[in-house]
Design a protein that fits this description.
Structural class: little secondary structure
InterPro entries: DUF1272
Number of strands: 3
Pfam families: DUF1272 (PF06906)
Number of domains: 1
Number of helices: 2
Distance between the termini: 27 Å
Order of helices and strands: EEHEH
Helix content: 10-25%
CATH architecture: 2-Layer Sandwich
Radius of gyration: 12 Å
Strand content: 5-15%
Strand order of the largest sheet: 2-1-3
CATH class: Alpha Beta
Largest sheet: 3 strands, antiparallel
């Protein structure tokens, strides 16, 4: 199950579980759309994988399967 990390690893912008601006790689590294497109050219700086839109968990499932609160911040 995806962790749904709460923020962009590059700029630390908040990315709530229902955010359409969250992008991830296959290792779940998480970035906002602005950083992913402008700074990273849609490539993960950690693994080199492509960054794609993060799926959104239905609000009814978030109570039982909450997003993580653990943040990763590595300024780009």
């Amino acid at each position: 199950m995806l962790e749904l990390r709460p923020g962009c690893e590059c700029c630390d912008r908040d990315l709530p579980p229902d955010s359409a601006d969250a992008l991830i790689c296959s290792f779940e590294c998480t970035f906002c759309r602005d950083c992913a497109e402008a700074k990273l050219q849609l490539r993960c700086p950690n693994c080199g994988g492509e960054l794609v839109s993060r799926p959104r968990r239905p609000m009814g499932k978030l109570e039982r399967f909450p997003a993580t609160t653990s943040r990763t911040f590595k300024p780009c």
